[in-house]
Amino acid sequence: MHFVTTPIFLRRFILGLIVPIGLHAASAAAAEGDATRGAQLYRACVACHALEPDLHLSGPSLGNIWRRTAGKAPGYVRYSPGLKEAELEWNDAALNG
To answer: Residue 45's domain spans which residues?
Structure first.
C-alpha cells in the first residue's frame, strides 16, 4: 500500500485540515460575540480537545491556546513532527489566513 493512501496518513491529513478551520470558525464566532455559534462549532472538537488548560485528551487542550506556539502545549507529547517544527502561533493572522 502506498504511504499517501494509508488510513493513518489520511486521518492525520484530514485532521490537519479540520482543526485549523474549526479554530478559525470558533475564533470568528468569538470575535463577533456569538457564544451559541462558538458552542456549536466546538462540537466538532470536543471528542479530542478539552477547553480546560492542561487537560489533554487524544488532542491537546485548547485552553489558553491564544498566542501559544502550535505543537508546544505543555504536557502534550503526541504532536506530529511537522507541527512540532511549524513555529506557528495561534493568533488572528494564523487563523484568518
So the answer is: 3-95
